[in-house]
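Page 47, continued from p. 46.
Same chain as before, 428 aa.
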Amino acid sequence: MRLGRPFTLLWAGQSASLIGDQLTRLALPLVAVLVLHATPGQVAALAAAGQLPFLILALPAGVWVARFGLRRAMLAADMVRGVAILSVPLFGAGGYPRLLVVAVVVGVATVPFQLAYQSVVPALVPAELIPAANRRLTLSESAAALLGPAAAGLLVGAVGAVRALYADAASYLVSIATLAAVRDGGAIGHADAGGAVRQVIAGWRYVLASPPLRALMWASALFNAGFAGYEALLTVFAIRTLHLTPGTLGLSVAAGGVGVPLGVALSRTAERRVGRGPTLVLAAALSAAGPFLVAAATPGTAVQLVAAATAVTGIGGGCWGVAALTTRQLLSHPDMRVQTTATHRFVSLGVLAPAAWAAGLAADTVGPRWAILTFAALGALSLLPLLRVPRLSWSTPTVRAAASTPKTTASTYLGLSRSTSGTTKPRP
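Result:
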C-alpha cells in the first residue's frame, strides 16, 4: 500500500528520532543518578520538568501550530531539541540545575512538535489510509521501544551517560533532514477565526460535546498520570532497590518492547471483530497492568518482571496508540483537528509533570515500591471513562456525518454566525 512520498519521509525521520527519544528518556535520568548522584525526588523532578510545558503551553501552542504550519513547527522544534541535547555532551552535565534547564527546553520544544505530529497524517494521506499510516508510525514506536533502551543501556555502559546523548542529537538531525524534504502538511484548521482565546475555548467545547473524544481525553489523562509516576521512579527503583545495572535495565526494557508490534496487530484484529470501543477498553486494561508487575519485583525476579511488564504495557500501548489516534483524527472535524489535539494533549500530558513530582514525594515518604504501586492503581482508573461511552458512539460514520452538519462545524464552536467553516488549504 503506497502512502506517498511525504508520509514516507515523515515516517523515516520519525523512526530515527524516536530511537533517540528513547535514548534520552533513559540517559538523562542516568546522568542524574550516576554522574550527579541525584536523589529519587530529584530524578522525579527531572522527569516532571520535561513534562511541565504541556500543562502550560499546550492550548496556546495549538493556535500557534495551526498558524505557523505543521511541518515548519516540527522543524523548529527538532532544531531546538537537538541543540539542547547536544549541549550536555559538548559542555558537560554542569550540575543538577543545568540538567534541569535542558529538560525544560526539550519539553517546551516537544509541545508544538507533538501537536503537529499528532495532526499531520490526515494532511499527508487520504482518509481511508489514515489507519494504515498510524499503524506504521506506531510500529516505529515499537522499534524504538525495542532498540532504544537496549542501545541506551549499552551505549551508557560503553561511553558514559553524558556522551551517549550525541546519538540522540544525531537522530534530530535525521528528522530535520527528512522534514525539510516534505512539501505537504501545512496549517490545518481555521487559524484566524475569532482569535487565539476563542480558538482555545472552541477546542474545549468541541471535545466536551463529543462523548468519545471526551472519554479518550480523560482515560488518557488517568493512565498517563499513573504511568508518569511509575516511569519517573523506574530507573532509581531498578538500580537502587532491584540492583540492576544500566545495561541490564536497558536490555530488560528492550526485551519487552516486542509487545508494541503485537499490540498494533491486535488493534486491527480487535477492531474488526468487536469494534473500536471495546478495543480501546482492552488496550487500556493491558496498558495499566504492567506497572503492577514491576511493583511486585524482587532482585531475584527483576529482569523477568521488568521485561514482562514492558511487554504487557507495550501490547496495550500499541493497540491503544493506533485505535485512539485514528479515532481522534477521524472523529474530529478537519477545521478543529489541531485544537482537538491541543485540548487532548493539554489534559492528557499536562498531568505528567504533577504526577512525576508527586511520585518523587511519595517515594521519599513511603519508598519507591509503594509509590509505584499507588500510581499503578491510578493508571487502572483509565478504564472508567471508556466504559461509560455507549458502544455505538464510537462509530466513525455516525460521528463524521454529524460533524458535517451546520451545528457541529468549526464556525459553531468558534462562536461565529456562519454555517460553513471556510477550511484553509494546507500550506507547505
